[in-house]
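Give me the 3D structure for Sugar ABC transporter substrate-binding protein.
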Amino acid sequence: MSVTKKLLGLTLAGGLIMGLAACDAPADTPAGEAAGGDIESVGISMPTRELERWINDGEQLKANLDDAGYTTDLQYAENDTDTQISQIQNQIASGADVLVIAAIDGSVLSPVLQDAADEGITVIAYDRLINGTPNVDYYATFDNYLVGQLQGQYIVEQLDLDNQEGPFNLEPFAGSPDDNNAKFFFSGAWDVLKPYIDEGKLVVKSGNEPTSNDDWASVGIQGWESAGAQDEMENRLASFYTDDKVDVVLSPNDSLAQGISEALVSNGYTPGSDWPILTGQDADKASVINILADKQSMTVWKDTRKLGEQVFTMIESLKAGDEPEVNDEETYDNGEKVVPSYLLQPEVVVKDDVQTKLIDSGFLTAGDVGL
Ligand code: GAL
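Predicted structure for Sugar ABC transporter substrate-binding protein (371 residues):
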């Protein structure tokens, strides 16, 4: 363990003893101000530049930290887990005090995070939980289960499933099988939709109906690839919908929705006419353009600026020797511990919301989406 961590540990322990002895010490007494002040270098590890949101995430967090005088190293691993591990190893060797990691595969980082722990490095899991290791100190994300619930509830409302008999043809998709978030997205949506499937109001003609939430990966698309979703949708349309139409597609995010949209176009579906309800997530520019063109129904917007600001705040707390604020200490059990987490709230964006929620907030410009 590094000298810094030992000092921080001793100081924190001392602070705790002092706190207990004093009992009424002001809550804001920095327990380890001197040692906490040693937090100067932050390694940021993002999965890929291929998906728009991660570019925003990495650049926003780096800017927040750079402006505050931290030394930062921002790396993108282009969805290759060996590359991400190597980049994290380099950040450890370069003396990072904190690592912020959006894992490509949250199940393969245990060895490298043991190295980080041995150096006394604090690890913050960013947006995606890291599993199978006690060496994750905090998790910052949006409420992933709520993302799915919002998608499911949107479908229920748009089809008026509480009053209509149906049946409506549903095709469900899930995210990448190696992404811990994907099971939460699917579970949130499926917990809303399954009762309507059981009632026969929703029917999965292709048979791609997970038997339970745990079976979510059976409809997963590796790497969140648009092309993978497009191919899968093409197969389902060709095999099961030659004389019928899809009424609704559950897509967990925008990159999949974009591929599904391409498959619908090539199979003769017409926006505003027989186009199915199509969900998404992330407010990617391409998907917002599709929403404006009636080729996607909604997206669940996660303002990544807020996530970057939250992680920055966590790091500033650590630097001050304080415990970072969390608001969930129950949900995210990573197999070794329940990781203290801070969950931000996502929100639905439909066509009529684009100007007020995305453009007026500065998240996108009118030019980004052809307005
Ligand atoms: C998830 C993330 C989503 C989604 C996907 C693709 O883990 O929470 O925002 O876009 O990855 O990167």
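The domain at 144-301+350-359+361-369 is CATH 3.40.50.2300 (Rossmann fold). Let me know if you want a second pass.
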